[in-house]
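Data deposition worksheet. Section B asks for the primary sequence of the deposited chain exactly as it was used as input, without tags or linkers unless they were present during the calculation. Section C holds the resulting structure in token form. Section D is free text for depositor observations; keep each observation to a single sentence. Incomplete worksheets are returned to the depositor.
Section A, Depositor: J.P.
Section B:
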Amino acid sequence: MRLNDLAIDVEPLPGAMPVYRASAAPAELRALCETARARGARLVSLWGSDESPRGKGYALHLALALRAGLLWLTVALPRQRPGYPGIAGIFPSADRMQRAAHDLLGIEPQGEAGRRKWLRHGAWPAGVFPLRKDFAAESRFALAGDHYEFVKVEGEGVHEIPVGPVHAGTIEPGHFRFNAAGETVVRLEERLGYTHKGIDRLMIGADIATAARIAGRTSGDSTVAYSYAFARAVEAALGAKVPQRAIWLRALMAELERLANHFGDIGAICNDAAFALLHAHCGFLREQVLRVADACFGHRLMMDRIVPGGVRADLPPGAERRIGELLAQVRKLFPELVELYDNTASLQDRTVATGRLAPELAREFGCGGYIGRASGRAFDARRMPGYAPYDRLQFERPVLEDGDVNARVWIRIREVEQSVSLVEQIVNALPPGPVRNPLAPSARGD
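Section C:
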């Protein structure tokens, strides 16, 4: 069939939402991307692989969100000197993904400036690419000493302050280079990816059960989100049916995870502004959510609870009561914390008009989540493309235009309120029945 938005031949893929697959030659890539961008498309992801569809070279892959659905576009690249026309000038968010594909696979975006290394960190010698099939991890590899050029800011009174990658807490490593003039941060440049796990390579050849465990360990505090997405992808590919009760339990886990992360983030922001009192209270609420998650699903972070075909286990007796007590506690304590945040002038001094992401820049980069919603983008995957059971639940998508730290805090606050309502709705509407359907024996891998 033809996809009218791009006038290319596509193959529809199975699943609850419209997904299409297509291929293009490298010479066609920029024109396709320019057309897609002109028609409102958003770049969801860009990655490479060590095998083209014909098995003779490399491939570049793009996921584009179009009005008609999601397009998976594959561009076959030659084995010798694999390259393609860079698209960061069309989709700015492609820049770091292109750099990652180059660092890990040697796939080069041509015609683009600023191709600094992103994920190598001196870990591999020149010409060695860890996601290629011929890569062999050897302890005798010496650090290559890759030099990363940070952008220099010069001027009277400008100080350069390096922070990380090792931090004084249990946060992920990252190196941050601040250029500050007094209290004004003139420029902040970050270098991340120090704990890149090579999940792409680990998944190759893994059975579904093993791959599900890998997906759930992409990020510990978002293990439900990653497990959820992976399970839905597997089920769509296999045409597997999921029991209704499992669909609702998955949403319950997702909203509990959302609550825990929003409480943690609100408190951490206040702590970064030297307001430790709110940090402590938000930490208390986060702990209550994690304890209820453990009581209901057998794991504080709910890791490995969502699996292809459903969920691993049903709620134990008394779970609904524990969840009800949690919601009552949040409804009692959280408004007081919100009032404290809003009425503390020294805290507002640090968050209002700080770190502003302009709405036009958020649109340019296709920002999602609370970051996008704090900068005027109403995108929420639960609504668009949408999936069950959210099509049967009542909730709002809070959106603000200011785009500063304060706006992002308020989006988190409003989303806490929405998640509390969603958890209550889900518990009250939980259907009876099984929580897991077996996959086909050839795919199960249990």
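Section D:
DSSP finds 14 helices and 14 strands in the chain.
The first strand starts at residue 2 and ends at 3.
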